[in-house]
Amino acid sequence: MRVVSREPAASMEAAAVCEVSVASDRPVTVLFAGEMAQAAGVDILVDAAAIVVADSTEVRFLFVGDGPLKTEMMARTNSAGFAPRCRFLGHLDSDAFAAVLNDSDILVVPGRVAQDHSVARSALAAGRWVLTTHQASIDGVEHGRNGLVTYDNPGSLVWGLRDLI
Questions:
Q1: In the chain, where do the E strands start and end?
Q2: What are the coiled-coil residue ranges (predicted)?
């Protein structure tokens, strides 16, 4: 049995209060939701995911959205051998997205430029950790309290994912 904090804590004391037990066979679910495009940084996340899945059998990645890089990202996960740990869900209606967000542990916003704040706000409101980049300029993410803020490169995202997982 492993312990995973399902909700970001305001302090270390609060972290002990909000921990819940999760069966060890339940992987940590990392969610990307946005346009599958270079500006959104989906390729940065896929590069980081390739490293993180080698570290841990307890992580899976969900990708919600469509865009010009979707086919390439699917091919990259396949050729790197970790496609079984990734799901590309395409565009989802609001109810389906809410269900996916509810089943996720971490939202990643790896943008190279400023991104829409709405998905991150929904994740924070649902008590999910948000891993974002400085470049994405997401309001409301407080480094170390309800998420982490990194740089727009795979190594920085690997650090953030490892820390949150």
A1: 2-5, 19-22, 28-33, 59-64, 86-90, 106-109, 129-133, 147-150
A2: none
